[in-house]
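G., before I forget:
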Amino acid sequence: MSEWIVRQKIRIPFQYTTGRALTRFLTGLAECRIWATRCAECARVYVPPRSFCGRCWREITEWRELPAEGEVMSYTVRPADPPLILGLIRLDGADTALVHRLGEVEPEELERVVRVRAVWREDRTGSILDIAYFAPVR
Amino acid sequence: MPRRVAIIATGQTKHAARRLDVNIAELITEAVTRALQDADLTMRDIDAVLLGNMEPFEGFLFPELWAVEGWGGYMKPSVKFNTGGTVGTTTAIAAYYYVASGIYDTVMAIGFQKQSEGHTQTAITTVGDPIWERSVMAGAIGNFAVMATTYMHESGVTEEQAAKVAVKARRNACLNEYAHLQMPDITVEDVLKSEMLAYPVKRLDMCPQSDGAVAVIFAEESKAQRLAPRPAWIKAVATAHEQQYMGDSPKRLAEMRSLIAASRRAYQAAGITNPRRELDVAEIYEVASFAELAMYENLGFCERGEGGKLIDAGVTELTGELPVNPSGGVLSTNPIGATALIRVAEAALQIMGKAGRRQVEGARTALATGYGGNAWTDILILSREKP
């Protein structure tokens, strides 16, 4: 007997409701603004913002705008042409880090990069990719 | 010996076709916050959180990962369940086990689904056996239609009798502030004239798809007595699984073997010999109007073949001898991962005397069921008296 395998594909369409906090964050990106929320109990500043602090179990209502600039906490380089550089960026005033791309930098320079700033796309749509990448502050 | 366990609080969202005002985390928070308020507790008082959700109805896997802020799982023991239509009752029964075992004192069970995010029939198709089901017939409606025609043939129930179930559900839903489909003016004629989906099932014979969440708090005896004026004690739980392939039990709706097995186990454990007389209210998982009639028979509310007569006689109306689904049931509200846990919450509300305008006067013993996969059954019996 030969092996017999049935092959199928299923397409799963879906949408994602962004909700109270992320809606303001995403529409803010379209205006080159970065919105965070701050928990009144633990004082953590969340970006991307949350409408609820899971650590303190309380609603978050305080909003603050953060500068589009911060520190690189970690990075990795994926060999490609050009190399794809991914980083964890903590914006000034935030307690959490954003996962994003790094640009205008060669992999061998990364060791010396501390400060980065957002480089905005021209055609912004209210997406995390409205930030094209973070570039070193030189 | 298992410890005594009671439900001490419940919380539900306003269920709707599309809750576009909130994301998944925010939806769950709404139910959890209400449950905590109901018992005057905070998240710190909860020892473990059990989650129920049916993947991939949101269209992606592990939606709870991105909602942990909402369900209060931060640093808590937690398990997630995914058992199909039964998921809500599976989660409730697991919460019962967690507390009855003596390991945890206060456990929260959560069920949620934001069905508007995904595509329900596609999601159900992913569940089907690739050869036997997907290639021939998948999705909920065709499945139920085939079962319903067999049941009509076996029992003699009519489309009109099934339509009466659909009417009862949507009218009862008007008394439930959380229900999705509230249709005060619906008539039997409306159901019969609604779009034919697959004979004999018409659009108004089927459950809707909803966005919604529910949270139910379980506690051990001393806490339950301290925290709830009238706890809903868990008197019995039972589960039974059927073979999945429909061809293995061609009279699936007429003879619901798993429902018979699980309910008889639960009745025995609760000391119930005449369910119609000894139960005061039932919240059952009737995904289609025809299924409710078949469930009357297989739950022993009436003799075989008498399901249609029970609805004709008004026995299961809110004012009848044994009200079934005063909440409006699944036919009115169906966020799948929450649906069966809503049955448990509604049964508990009846025992606790907190069911508002849908309250069955003096309800002392309540039945809740979950039904899923194609024919799996969960049963819980709640009581005002300690087991």
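The beta strands of chain A are 34-38, 45-46, 52-53, 58-59, 62-66, 69-78, 84-91, 98-102, 115-120, 131-136. Chain A has one domain: 19-136.

More on Monday.
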